[in-house]
Amino acid sequence: MDDRRFEHALRDLLVRDGWMAQRVGGGGDQAADVIGDHAVLGRIVVQAKHTRVGGKVGSSVMYAVKGTAGPVHGADHAVVVTNGFFTRDAMTWGDRHTVHWVDRGKLRRWAEDGTALHELLKLPARSRGSWFKRAA
């Protein structure tokens, strides 16, 4: 599966889970490959990182997603998904700064086991006080 198909697959999984989602990735996507909207959970921005076997996603990806998900895309939730793994620093930073991460193991639970992403990540309902504020 190439990068584009990976992004389409993530979009399809969100749709399966009840999100109205679209693939927006490509040049100039500002760290958003898939954007989804949910009546209760709000908006989600997904950055897809399709890696080679054994590839790891580093902290710089988490910084980029944190910097654009709310201000640029109006997201309530930011998620980075990879078919590989994350560095320890990336996971720690994501946990500390509310950028959710889905590695190979979580991806398998989401895609193959049928666990909805919002259940897997325990995403809260949209709240007015969240650090991701919707654009007015």
TrEMBL record:
**Which InterPro entries does the UniProt entry name for this protein?**
Restrct_endonuc-II-like (IPR011335), Restrct_endonuc_IV_Mrr (IPR007560), tRNA_endonuc-like_dom_sf (IPR011856), Type_IV_Methyl-Rstrct_Enzyme (IPR052906)
Q: Which Pfam families match?
A: Mrr_cat (PF04471)
Q: Which residues form a coiled coil?
A: none
Any idea where the Restriction endonuclease type IV Mrr domain is? Answer: 1-110
Give the domain of life: Bacteria
Give the matching PANTHER family. MRR RESTRICTION SYSTEM PROTEIN, SLL1429 PROTEIN
**What's the protein name?**
Restriction endonuclease type IV Mrr domain-containing protein
Q: Which organism is it from?
A: Streptomyces variabilis
